[in-house]
Amino acid sequence: MSVPLHSAEGAPLSYLAVGLGWEPSPPSVDLGLDQRTAVTNRFDVNLAALLFSVDQLVDVVFYDHLASADGSVRHSGDDLTGEGLGDNETITIEIDRIAPSVSSVMFVVSSYTARPFTDIPNAYCHVTDASSQLEIARYALTGGPYTAFVVGKLVRTPQTWFFTGIGAGIEATHVAESVPYLSPYLP
Fold it and tell me: What's the pTM value of the predicted model, to 2 decimals?
């Protein structure tokens, strides 16, 4: 699926948001287990944006690097629990500010605690026009046997930007581990 990023009136969209949400892990009984065990029993899902110039990775925005070098792509910060209503993590994109050398922006969700999405309740990711709140694409992540998910990408053409949905499950727990899986979707 490829969608031109235009309003209903034909004006180019300038501000997008990619949101990620999931429900927290069920409360666990304190059995005196060490901290490492406690971490593996919770769900920590992360959202990342990878900026490419053709097939070369030029920047990454994720929980440990909250903004692209040009400031056009920003991450809301790491959510370790999934608690609360609505999106738990959000990446916003100011399309007009993306560096001219960037030809695509890929979005990836990963389960940092290596829990497959079969275990993570009500996990989803969606892409919206941040100005109008119109949803462009939505993915239900729960149920897949993978630990990461390639959501889709923004693609620059001489005329406009497009969102192209990918929707592929992969095995990664950190954004760095996802990079080798992205080559089939580039440029």
Answer: 0.89
